[in-house]
Design goal:
Elements (H helix, E strand, L loop, with lengths): L2 E6 L14 E2 L2 E2 H10 L6 E7 L5 H10 L3 E4 L4 H12 L3 E6 L7 H14 L3 E3 L13 E4 H10 L3 H5 L3 H4 L7 E3 L16 H14 L7 H10 L18
Parallel strand pairs: 1-4, 1-6, 4-5, 7-9
Antiparallel strand pairs: 2-3, 6-8, 7-8
Helix pairs in contact: 3-5
């Protein structure tokens, strides 16, 4: 059975244009996401799903340069993009990650994949009841569930955001919420704004450009250096409707 991490990526961003290619410790942010996901021992492959837009040609070039499989599809119908990408790479289980998470943690991914394999729900995620820092998000579902959602989801937001159809129809799907031992949900490690980027750059500068640190080391660093948290304090998360 093939478990594939699929990272959705495009250069368009309202609050931080071209953010997926922004430099973090001498590498583009998307490459940081790919490298951290590639450290997962429970996933067989990491691939990127981007759009057919010419603006996203640099994403394809980056993926080719680092040997990462890439699929190009619809910009707005991200659900279809995931469906076609999963079909192309013949994934049995899909782990959905977004390209604005350069601190995504392979240990958390592995734990989530293990729980998904043990419990065998239709869908598992660590964001249903958020306990991990924002930016360590993952969702897991089988290709058969993806096919079903692809066939049944009709609303624009269901197509654009991939999984709302599952969460908005709990009577149709078995759902597993993955939670941590402590609540660290007040931390914001995703990158949507220049302030977010400064925080992540500071973390890489301190903990190492090789990116081999884990999320608990980040927590320790921030606890010892609380002034770093002020770099993106007050930034609000965009809603799905924004």
């Amino acid at each position: 059975m093939s478990t594939v991490i699929i990272i959705q990526a495009r250069v368009g961003s309202t609050r931080l244009p071209n953010k997926v290619l922004t430099d973090i410790a001498n590498k583009p942010m998307l490459q940081r996401v790919v490298e951290r996901c590639s450290r997962s021992t429970n996933a067989d492959t990491v691939m990127v799903a981007t759009t057919n837009n010419a603006d996203d040609d640099p994403i394809v070039k980056l993926c080719e340069s680092i040997g990462t499989p890439v699929y190009r599809g619809s910009e707005e119908d991200v659900l279809d993009r995931y469906k076609q990408a999963a079909d192309m790479i013949q994934a049995d289980v899909i782990v959905r990650v977004t390209s604005d998470c350069p601190l995504i943690d392979p240990e958390i991914l592995d734990q989530a994949i293990t729980k998904f394999e043990e419990v065998k729900p239709d869908y598992a995620s660590n964001v249903i009841e958020r306990t991990y820092p924002r930016g360590l998000d993952c969702e897991i579902f089988s290709r058969s569930v993806l096919d079903r959602v692809w066939n049944e989801a009709k609303q624009k937001h269901e197509r654009e955001h991939v999984t709302p159809y599952i969460l908005e129809n709990p009577e149709k799907f078995t759902v597993l919420s993955i939670v941590g031992d402590t609540n660290e949900s007040t931390h914001r490690w995703t990158v949507d704004t220049p302030e977010d980027l400064k925080l992540v750059q500071a973390i890489y500068a301190e903990l190492g450009e090789d990116g081999a640190f884990d999320w608990k080391q980040i927590l320790d660093f921030l606890e010892q250096n609380p002034e770093i948290l002020q770099l993106n304090a007050g930034i609000e998360q965009k809603s799905l409707k924004d």
